[in-house]
Amino acid sequence: MAIQEYLSNTQVFNAADFRQEFGESLTDRNLLVRAVRRGRVDRPRRGLYVSKTGPYSRGQADPFDVAVKVADDVVFCFLSALELHGVAHNLTFRTQFYTTHKITGFGYAGQEYQPLRYPTTPPVTRGLLTPSGRRYQVTTREQTLVDCLARPNAAGGVENVLRSACGFAHLDVDGVLAIAAGSSATLRARLGWVLETRAVQWRVGTQALGTLAASLGAGPHYFSSAGIKHPHWVNRWRLYLPFPEQEMVAWMDQ
Prior knowledge:
- By secondary structure, the chain is α+β, with helices and mostly antiparallel strands.
- It has helices at about 1-10, 15-20, 25-35, 65, 80-85, 140-150, 160-165, 175-180, 185-195, 200, 205-215, 245-250; strands at about 10-15, 40-45, 50, 75, 95-100, 105-110, 110-115, 125-130, 135-140, 220, 230-235, 240.
- The strands form 4 sheets. The chain has a 4-stranded mixed sheet.
- A hairpin with a 5-residue loop joins strand 8 (about 125-130) and strand 9 (about 135-140).
- Helix 5 (about 80-85) runs antiparallel to helix 6 (about 140-150) and helix 6 crosses helix 8 (about 175-180).
- The mean pLDDT is about 90.
């Protein structure tokens, strides 16, 4: 039977994939509904399916494979971008992605799927080929760093951001500065402190740091939510840190 073969060879698919394969056949749609009812196919959300048939009867689907079937313009970001770039410090069960479609988050197989509104300024992205041979669209290293510094809470908190960021063996510093050029002074202050801390490893020039420092104004700026106590002041960056500077530097010195 064609649908049995399809379910044995296709682990994750959506309604559009199914229509492309079987057309508008009411019989095949009814067979799919029956497979869902019998537990041979999971339906994490409307229009999204995960086969539990044949070779897929025991294993879990890769969360990234599930997410890319949610919308046709998925771009992985924040925690998911850190993971795909191979630098994520903390193990998480959250898959985050940008999309222009209005989609609510959902949970499936212990994983939280978090669609995020596509930024007004389109992020810099790239197709990333994973060791498994799959290719996903993901924010670049430079964009990921800027995003995570702009919204540390979305990326697992300040410590996770810094410990993960130090996993980048190299960065295009000019690219980072170009992405951050139109951002807030607060983000530029955070970025300046991070770039200065990793100046040797990322080959950050003194001119780039000087330009960033000169763009900050009087401040003060905060590394995380201004509602949190920030007793640690870094004068050059007009920046309050939420933890002692030596401790935060140590997070990046790995």
